[in-house]
Specification:
Blueprint (H helix, E strand, L loop, with lengths): L3 E3 L4 E3 L1 E4 L9 H28 L1 H4 L2 H26 L7 E3 H34 L4 H4 L2 H27 L8 E2 L6 H5 L7 H34 L4 H29 L8 H24 L1 H20 L1
Parallel strand pairs: 3-5
Antiparallel strand pairs: 1-2, 3-4
Family: Belongs to the G-protein coupled receptor 1 family.
Subcellular location: Cell membrane
GO molecular function: G protein-coupled receptor activity; olfactory receptor activity
């Protein structure tokens, strides 16, 4: 099963075998259908958010919803990097992934994931300005600044993904090529390296830990100020409306950070829960984000109703 190329010194791995998710053979078709449906719903749900933000003038003129559209775009790509490979593992086709493909998948996953991390921080900062600095908000967070901040998040995410991919694949891989995981991720790939991985594990822990912890602390600081400002609002309806604009973001931040901490900040872990948590983080979370924002965000629901009503009226006029 191992595909390697002989050299005078050792054997060099030219591809990896992704063992996928462990499952009973009689559930193969059912799991294939479940993940296929999740993938389709994820793409449609996030595409709906994107189209709603783009089509509604009240939304695409506001930084909060520009950031939401970027988040949906990231979720679509993150799901596409991981889920099709999971679906493929439930078919009789080969489970091999070329060495370069493994590098690309690891890079893309950490690039998109870290960009999301930075984006959640920008979304918290946007809510902080809107609630704590309402009079200065149009000047402090305009469309141009929002675009610059989003571009910065993409650049920072690309740098982070490059560091992780470079550190992981600079090591020699000369023996087993079976990755006991459903995609090429750092902990699973490092277990196959023909060298000491202590430094890699330490750098991964520090790098991801610093990125996640710094972003999380900035989010907490933003929301501490937000809560303080909301408690000063005299009317119950005003407090409720202010909290409602933050509820969706707090929910998706929790869904993002808990699995991330569980997987990456426990070096050397081989817990069987890692796979289940990773499935939630990579497969379920991109599906939940559009649901959370459409169910909890009144403005998005109102925009969807306006778009639907407009199409209905247009068809009647015809």
């Amino acid at each position: 099963m191992e595909n390697t190329k002989n050299t005078s010194l050792n054997t060099i791995v030219t591809d990896f075998i992704l063992l996928g998710l462990p499952h009973p053979e009689n559930l193969r078709i059912l799991l294939f259908l479940i993940f296929f449906i999740i993938y389709i719903l994820t793409q449609l749900g996030n595409l709906l958010i994107l189209l709603t933000v783009w089509a509604d003038p009240k939304l695409h003129a506001r930084p909060m919803y520009i950031l939401l559209g970027v988040l949906s775009f990231l979720d679509m790509w993150l799901s596409s990097v991981i889920v099709p490979r999971i679906i493929l593992n439930f078919t009789p086709s080969s489970k091999a992934i070329p060495f370069g493909g493994c590098v690309a998948q690891l890079y893309a996953f950490h690039f998109l994931g870290s960009t999301q991390c930075f984006l959640y921080t920008l979304m918290a900062y946007d809510r902080f300005l809107a609630i704590c600095r309402p009079l200065h908000y149009p000047m402090l967070m305009n469309g141009k600044l929002c675009a610059i901040l989003v571009a910065g998040a993409w650049v920072a995410g690309s740098i982070h993904g490059s560091i992780q991919a470079t550190l992981t694949f600079r090591l020699p891989y000369c023996g087993p090529n079976q990755v006991d995981y459903f995609f090429c991720d750092i902990p699973a790939v490092l277990r196959l390296a023909c060298a000491d991985t202590t430094v890699n594990e330490l750098v991964t822990f520090v790098d991801i830990g610093v990125v996640a912890a710094s972003c999380f602390m900035l989010i907490l600081l933003s929301y501490a100020n937000i809560v303080h400002a909301i408690l000063k609002i005299r009317t119950a309806d005003g407090r409720r409306r202010a909290f409602s604009t933050c509820g969706s973001h707090l929910t998706v931040v929790t869904v993002y950070y808990v699995p991330c901490v569980f997987i990456y900040l426990r070096p050397g872990s081989t817990s069987p829960l890692d796979g289940a948590v990773a499935v939630f983080y990579t497969v379920v979370t991109p599906l939940l984000n559009p649901l959370i924002y459409t169910l909890r965000n009144q403005e998005v629901k109102s925009a969807l109703k306006r778009i639907t009503a407009g199409r209905g009226a247009g068809s009647e006029n015809k």
